[in-house]
Amino acid sequence: MVFQSFNLFNNMNVLENCLSGQLTVLKRNRQEAKEIALENLKKVGMERYVNAKPSQLSGGQK
């Protein structure tokens, strides 16, 4: 899911934000969700930001 506005949880880091929907909506187990999230972050060049909070990202990175 890609949002046009920044619908990120400010108290969560990038990885936690990526896991949120997978765990709650898709009911994936945590390990599977993490693997998918990391794979997708790598595809878009964001893997180094997994521990960053939304406030630490640029508008384009959000």
Automatic annotation (TrEMBL):
Keywords per UniProt: ATP-binding, Cell membrane, Hydrolase, Membrane, Nucleotide-binding, Transport
EC number(s) given by UniProt: 3.6.3.-
Coiled coil region boundaries: none
Keyword Isomerase applies: no
Single GO MF annotation: hydrolase activity
Subcellular location, record wording: Cell membrane
Similarity field: Belongs to the ABC transporter superfamily.
UniProt-recorded name of the protein: Amino acid ABC transporter ATP-binding protein
Gene (UniProt): tcyN_4
